[in-house]
Specification:
Layout (H helix, E strand, L loop, with lengths): L2 E7 L3 H14 L5 E6 L6 H8 L4 E4 L6 H14 L4 E5 L3 E3 L3 H11 L3 E9 L6 E3 L2 E3 L6 E3 L13 E3 L7 E5 H7 L12 H11 L3 E12 L15 H9 L7 H10 L4 H24 L2 H17 L1
Parallel strand pairs: 1-2, 1-4, 2-3, 6-12
Antiparallel strand pairs: 4-11, 5-12, 6-7, 6-11, 8-9, 10-12
């Protein structure tokens, strides 16, 4: 019942070396570490071979984004006879109890996809991900316990409506049942959301192991309008870049595929982009402390709606 920790990377040598080191520091020896290098030119492959000879290095090419690289790693995990795959970002840092908690949760909940709680690397006691729930009156997913102290979460398992692929354990049978990450429709973003939702429709539970904590460097994760003020060029990139969750065609495709109805699709799409442009404007005219208060109130409203 071995598990493969699959780490896709591209030209982030220092980040991935730190990530792999922390994995080997805490992962039991009977499990595997697979690094999928999508054609890095910064010496990543050489460094992995020299510093971590026990890691399995899988070469890819520069046309591969996270989802395609994950699919390549899953194929290698099959060859190694692994029964589980732990999708793991190259900007993660493991904490001492992470893998024990994840593997134990996987053993106790075999027909489930299980994610760790994610905290900020520079604020390790603050949560940014502990699961997402679908709003009752739209197709929007909101974050649970975003920016709350880690100590407030408690322990045990939490069932949610949506996970991600940042530090998430998949039984190999999930890929046999619903297929791999959809690299054609969702290159770079939304492929993890799409797969977990397809798996949920096939009957797999989505759980967060509240005792499993991983740290993540959020400065290296895609484009977002939440931590910066955007000018005209930034707004155009936000709507068109493959690194942005607000890229219009990809977000539209995702919302359409997983809609509850045409009405909910239209409502969610419209309010997503109205909210986006309201946030961009607010960043210029409202103090940050006030914005954080408004975000807290908005999350409370979503949980009731």
């Amino acid at each position: 019942m071995s598990t493969a920790v699959v780490i896709p990377t591209f030209n982030r040598r220092e980040s991935v070396l730190a990530a792999v080191k922390s994995v080997f520091d805490f992962l039991p020896a009977e499990h595997h570490v697979i690094v999928v290098d999508s054609g890095s030119t910064d010496g990543t492959a050489i460094a992995i071979r020299e510093l971590f000879p026990k890691a399995t290095l899988v070469p890819g090419d520069s046309s591969m984004w996270w989802d395609a690289a994950m699919n390549l790693g899953i194929g290698k995990a099959r060859e190694l006879g692994c029964s589980n795959v732990l999708a793991y970002n190259d900007d993660n840092i493991a904490t001492p109890g992470l893998f024990h908690a994840m593997l134990e949760a996987g053993h106790r909940h075999p027909h489930s996809i299980i994610a760790a709680v994610c905290c900020y690397l520079d604020r390790p006691e603050t949560v940014f991900f502990a699961g997402r729930m679908r709003a009752r009156n739209s197709d929007r997913y909101y974050y649970l316990d975003h920016n709350v102290p880690l100590s407030s979460l408690g322990s045990g398992m939490r069932e949610v409506d949506l996970l991600h692929g940042m530090c998430t354990l998949f039984p190999m049978e999930v890929f046999d049942t619903v297929g791999l990450f959809d690299a054609e429709a969702y290159s770079s973003l939304f492929a993890d959301d799409d797969l977990t939702l397809r798996a949920a429709k096939a009957g797999y539970s989505q759980l967060v192991a509240l005792d499993a904590v991983v740290l993540n460097d959020r400065t290296k994760t895609g484009m977002n309008p939440y931590d910066q003020r955007l000018g005209p060029v930034g707004i155009i990139k936000l709507l068109s870049s493959k690194s942005s969750t607000f890229k219009v065609d990809r977000r539209t495709r995702f919302l359409w595929r997983h809609r509850r109805s045409f009405y909910y699709f239209c409502k969610t799409w419209l309010f997503d982009y109205l909210r986006l442009f309201s946030l961009i404007l607010a960043k210029w005219v409202i103090p940050e402390s006030t914005l954080q208060w408004l975000e807290k109130k908005w999350m409370q409203r979503l949980s009731r709606s």
